[in-house]
Amino acid sequence: MVRFLTAGESHGRALVVILEGIPAGLRLDLDSITRDLRRRQGGYGRGRRMAIESDRADILSGVRAGETIGGPIAMVIENRDWVNWQQTMHTGPEPAPDARGARRAPVTRPRPGHADLAGLAKYGRDDVRDILERASARETAARVAAGAVARQLLASAGIRLTSHVFAIGSVSVPDHLTVSFERAAALPDDSPLRCVDDEAAGRMIAEIDSAKAAGDTMGGAFEIIATGVPVGLGSYVQWDRKLDGRLAQALMSIPAIKGVGIGIGPEAAARPGSRVHDEILLGEGSGGLPVVRPTNNAGGLEGGVTNGQDLRVSAWMKPIATLMKPLRSVNITDLTESGAAIERSDVCAVPAAAVVGEAMVALTLADALLEKFGGDSIGELTHAIEEWTSGLKDRFRARARGAFRG
Prior knowledge:
Strand content: 15-25%
CATH topology: Chorismate synthase, AroC fold
Order of helices and strands: EEHHEEEEHHHEEHHEHEEEEEEEEHH
Shape: globular
Strand order of the largest sheet: 8-7-9-15-10
Radius of gyration: 23 Å
CATH superfamily: Chorismate synthase AroC
Number of domains: 1
Structural class: alpha+beta
Helix content: 25-40%
């Protein structure tokens, strides 16, 4: 239903994204796309590249007079640093006569933990730059632009998303599931770590500073929260339609993400069932169901289907592979041992990864929303959601009246 493709290299001319499946009639707030791109560039521990780039997505198609028209939406994000890379990243056989920047030597020392070595073997290349330019997390700027459009589609259906960082290195926020959507959403855009706990955030910053001083890098974990999600997105009838699996794949596709959890995630394996499963009680619930849950350990998903509670998805990010004090590697030109290559990089990018995570969850939810409710226009989609929600309420009310008469 909703799908996207990206193209472009980290130091190439631009990133391109094509987003397909967005219904006609969605009024786009272009400033909010720029805002999400800027949020991705922020966060404590980012490198010098963020001072160079000031990302902005230019829409080339699929939008007219500020409103989607039903066709594919194409966007381009220019790389401002391209001027310094024209001698190295030219697409023709030779650089243009007026090409600027230095002609950089081939990269021949793959970095442990990056796609460098596996990519060289897979694609038969001799210069690691052919791999690292596309495997770079710079590509995620295009995802954030697409996700910003998907977020606006979700907002038209009453669904909102936010994120917060709950761990950096050995420092973590106790019981991150108690962090409400409102508390996470209240974090300012310029929050250095997107952490709701000021005391923990201070210790996280110290952890990052320590890693930087040692020429090392630091990972962490973040959580995406979506509220207002209708009951019934996803399915249990086939393995590839289960929404938890789709969300896990979307988040695992982000560079450096090594684990994904729904609700309490891996902790569910260490608890007895009585402390895992969310009880179902009578009450005025959300999404049209006449029930409430005292807990949300399931993270809003049961059997691969949304149950009306807040959707809560966590992701764990490994430390970035480029170290200023490089690990041991091998020079592929002469097979001698050598330190790994050093590329301009971050010390910690967990807050930025959380913004990319929001985008991937938004795109996945938008796909599931249209899968469930359909519609070629926003009017059709909104009507279908309203009919579903009111119909769900009527079904349960009718059963309650029947039971009372009996």
